[in-house]
Amino acid sequence: MVSLTALRDIFAAHGFAIAEAWGTGYHPLPGRLASRLAALDPRHAHFVGVVAERSSDKLLTIAAALYVLLPFDVIPDFIPVVGHFDDAIIVSLVLMTFRQRWLDRLGRLVRRRPRLSQPETA
Predict the structure, then answer these.
(1) Residue pLDDT, tens place only, 85-102
(2) Which residues make beta-bridge pairs with 50?
């Protein structure tokens, strides 16, 4: 069994950032009480979940390119029109991800920029 702290350390060692962590169940407590305690302190929950992100644009691009180029996908490419539909979805999702990351970075840059004080008019 791996604790939440150890799980976070494992992900961090491999270059992932923890976006979210949660817990459920507090043995031997029942139902709602266990759920509330697990939400307050996921480190001691019976089951833990982690959402980890890796901010590697190269990895995402390579994975999408391999999915599009390799002949093994969800819907085979030799089926007319429908065969390329899943490839189009993957490419669209990757482009939307990059667009959102770019907008997030731009938003952080704009918020970080100092505002110039405007001259007072009397």
Answers:
(1) 777 888 888 888 888 888
(2) 21
d(CA 100, CA 97): 5
Q: What letter represents residue 65's amino acid? A: A
Q: Please give the span between the terminal C-alpha atoms of the chain, in angstroms, as a whole number.
A: 70
One-letter amino acid for residue 44 of the chain? H
Whether the CB-CB separation of 49 and 4 falls below 8 Å is answered with: no
Half-sphere exposure of 87 (CA within 13 A, CB side): 19
Q: Which residue has the tokens 């990757």?
A: 94
Angle of helix 57-69 relative to helix 82-112, nearest 10 degrees?
A: 170
- pLDDT per position as a tens digit, 66-81: 777 776 666 776 777 7
3-state secondary structure 38-70: HHHCHHHCCEEEEEEECCCHHHHHHHHHHHHHC
